[in-house]
Write a structure and sequence with these properties.
The protein has 165 residues and is an alpha+beta fold. The chain is built from 1 helix and 7 strands; from the N terminus they run αβββββββ. It has a 4-stranded antiparallel beta sheet with strand order 4-3-6-7, with no helix packed on it. The longest helix is centred in the first third of the chain and has 68 residues. The termini are far apart.
Length: 165
Protein backbone atom coordinates (compact mmCIF):
# COMPACT_ATOMS: atom_id res chain seq x y z
CA UNK A 1 0.00 0.00 0.00
CA UNK A 2 2.82 2.35 0.71
CA UNK A 3 4.08 1.85 -2.78
CA UNK A 4 0.76 2.87 -4.38
CA UNK A 5 0.45 5.93 -2.13
CA UNK A 6 3.97 6.91 -3.03
CA UNK A 7 3.20 6.40 -6.68
CA UNK A 8 0.08 8.59 -6.45
CA UNK A 9 2.04 11.28 -4.62
CA UNK A 10 4.77 11.26 -7.28
CA UNK A 11 2.10 11.35 -9.97
CA UNK A 12 0.38 14.37 -8.35
CA UNK A 13 3.69 16.22 -7.97
CA UNK A 14 4.54 15.45 -11.60
CA UNK A 15 1.14 16.72 -12.77
CA UNK A 16 1.56 19.86 -10.62
CA UNK A 17 5.02 20.48 -12.14
CA UNK A 18 3.74 19.95 -15.69
CA UNK A 19 0.63 22.12 -15.14
CA UNK A 20 2.13 25.04 -13.23
CA UNK A 21 5.89 25.04 -12.80
CA UNK A 22 6.94 24.32 -16.41
CA UNK A 23 4.73 27.05 -17.94
CA UNK A 24 5.97 29.57 -15.35
CA UNK A 25 9.61 28.58 -16.01
CA UNK A 26 9.01 28.86 -19.79
CA UNK A 27 7.46 32.30 -19.31
CA UNK A 28 10.42 33.50 -17.20
CA UNK A 29 12.93 32.16 -19.75
CA UNK A 30 10.96 33.83 -22.58
CA UNK A 31 11.00 37.18 -20.77
CA UNK A 32 14.74 36.94 -20.12
CA UNK A 33 15.37 35.98 -23.74
CA UNK A 34 13.23 38.89 -24.98
CA UNK A 35 15.14 41.34 -22.76
CA UNK A 36 18.51 40.03 -23.97
CA UNK A 37 17.45 40.23 -27.63
CA UNK A 38 16.34 43.87 -27.12
CA UNK A 39 19.74 44.71 -25.63
CA UNK A 40 21.49 42.98 -28.52
CA UNK A 41 19.34 44.90 -31.04
CA UNK A 42 20.21 48.22 -29.35
CA UNK A 43 23.92 47.40 -29.49
CA UNK A 44 23.61 46.30 -33.11
CA UNK A 45 21.81 49.57 -33.93
CA UNK A 46 24.57 51.64 -32.27
CA UNK A 47 27.20 49.61 -34.12
CA UNK A 48 25.43 50.28 -37.43
CA UNK A 49 25.34 54.01 -36.66
CA UNK A 50 29.06 54.05 -35.86
CA UNK A 51 29.85 52.10 -39.03
CA UNK A 52 27.78 54.54 -41.09
CA UNK A 53 29.55 57.54 -39.54
CA UNK A 54 32.92 55.90 -40.21
CA UNK A 55 32.00 55.24 -43.85
CA UNK A 56 30.84 58.85 -44.27
CA UNK A 57 34.08 60.11 -42.72
CA UNK A 58 36.15 57.91 -45.05
CA UNK A 59 34.11 59.10 -48.02
CA UNK A 60 34.65 62.75 -47.06
CA UNK A 61 38.37 62.10 -46.58
CA UNK A 62 38.67 60.53 -50.03
CA UNK A 63 36.71 63.43 -51.52
CA UNK A 64 39.10 65.89 -49.86
CA UNK A 65 42.10 63.95 -51.17
CA UNK A 66 40.64 63.93 -54.67
CA UNK A 67 39.95 67.67 -54.44
CA UNK A 68 43.50 68.33 -53.19
CA UNK A 69 44.89 66.35 -56.13
CA UNK A 70 43.16 68.74 -58.53
CA UNK A 71 44.07 71.91 -56.67
CA UNK A 72 46.98 74.29 -57.19
CA UNK A 73 48.33 76.57 -54.44
CA UNK A 74 50.71 79.39 -55.33
CA UNK A 75 52.83 80.75 -52.50
CA UNK A 76 55.70 83.24 -52.21
CA UNK A 77 58.68 83.86 -49.96
CA UNK A 78 61.47 86.46 -49.86
CA UNK A 79 64.91 84.82 -49.83
CA UNK A 80 68.25 86.50 -49.09
CA UNK A 81 70.73 85.73 -51.88
CA UNK A 82 73.74 87.64 -50.53
CA UNK A 83 74.42 90.74 -48.49
CA UNK A 84 71.83 93.30 -49.55
CA UNK A 85 70.41 91.13 -52.39
CA UNK A 86 66.99 89.55 -52.10
CA UNK A 87 64.70 87.62 -54.40
CA UNK A 88 61.09 86.62 -54.08
CA UNK A 89 60.50 82.97 -54.87
CA UNK A 90 57.00 82.13 -56.15
CA UNK A 91 56.14 78.42 -56.33
CA UNK A 92 53.22 76.03 -56.78
CA UNK A 93 52.86 73.90 -53.64
CA UNK A 94 49.66 72.25 -54.89
CA UNK A 95 49.22 69.10 -56.96
CA UNK A 96 47.81 70.66 -60.12
CA UNK A 97 49.08 73.17 -62.66
CA UNK A 98 48.34 76.87 -62.02
CA UNK A 99 47.75 79.14 -65.03
CA UNK A 100 48.26 82.91 -65.45
CA UNK A 101 50.14 83.24 -62.16
CA UNK A 102 50.45 86.82 -60.95
CA UNK A 103 50.89 88.68 -57.67
CA UNK A 104 50.16 92.10 -56.25
CA UNK A 105 51.31 94.06 -53.23
CA UNK A 106 50.01 97.14 -51.52
CA UNK A 107 50.52 100.27 -53.65
CA UNK A 108 53.22 101.69 -51.34
CA UNK A 109 55.32 98.51 -51.76
CA UNK A 110 54.96 98.05 -55.54
CA UNK A 111 58.37 99.63 -56.20
CA UNK A 112 59.99 97.04 -53.90
CA UNK A 113 59.15 93.96 -55.97
CA UNK A 114 59.95 93.84 -59.68
CA UNK A 115 57.38 92.27 -61.99
CA UNK A 116 59.57 91.01 -64.82
CA UNK A 117 58.16 87.50 -65.29
CA UNK A 118 54.48 87.86 -64.47
CA UNK A 119 51.93 86.96 -65.59
CA UNK A 120 53.56 83.53 -65.66
CA UNK A 121 51.69 81.44 -68.26
CA UNK A 122 51.62 78.18 -66.28
CA UNK A 123 53.31 76.87 -63.16
CA UNK A 124 53.46 73.11 -62.71
CA UNK A 125 53.35 71.47 -59.26
CA UNK A 126 56.65 71.88 -57.43
CA UNK A 127 58.00 74.41 -59.96
CA UNK A 128 58.91 78.03 -59.17
CA UNK A 129 60.16 81.32 -60.55
CA UNK A 130 61.93 84.26 -58.93
CA UNK A 131 61.51 88.03 -59.00
CA UNK A 132 63.98 90.66 -57.74
CA UNK A 133 63.24 92.47 -54.50
CA UNK A 134 64.72 95.91 -53.85
CA UNK A 135 65.63 96.48 -50.20
CA UNK A 136 66.97 99.88 -49.13
CA UNK A 137 67.18 101.98 -46.00
CA UNK A 138 63.74 102.51 -44.52
CA UNK A 139 62.21 99.52 -46.32
CA UNK A 140 59.56 97.85 -44.18
CA UNK A 141 60.59 94.42 -42.94
CA UNK A 142 57.22 92.87 -43.84
CA UNK A 143 54.54 93.49 -46.43
CA UNK A 144 51.33 91.93 -47.72
CA UNK A 145 51.31 89.98 -50.97
CA UNK A 146 48.40 88.39 -52.80
CA UNK A 147 49.06 85.70 -55.40
CA UNK A 148 46.48 85.10 -58.13
CA UNK A 149 46.12 82.13 -60.47
CA UNK A 150 43.54 80.27 -62.54
CA UNK A 151 42.93 76.51 -62.35
CA UNK A 152 42.47 74.15 -65.29
CA UNK A 153 38.68 74.80 -65.31
CA UNK A 154 39.25 78.56 -65.57
CA UNK A 155 38.22 79.30 -61.98
CA UNK A 156 40.27 82.12 -60.39
CA UNK A 157 42.00 81.64 -57.03
CA UNK A 158 44.07 83.84 -54.75
CA UNK A 159 46.09 83.58 -51.56
CA UNK A 160 47.00 86.40 -49.16
CA UNK A 161 50.33 86.24 -47.35
CA UNK A 162 52.55 88.41 -45.18
CA UNK A 163 56.16 88.25 -46.38
CA UNK A 164 59.14 89.26 -44.30
CA UNK A 165 62.46 90.52 -45.58
Amino acid sequence: MVFTELWILIKDVFIYIVKYALPIAALVISCLSYRDSRKANKIRGRLNEVEEKLKNFELEEKEREREEATKACVEARVVKISKGKYKMKVWNSGKATAYNVDFETQPEYENMVFKEKVPFEFLEPGKNFEEHVLVYMGTPRKFNLTTHWVDSQGKPHSKDQILSV
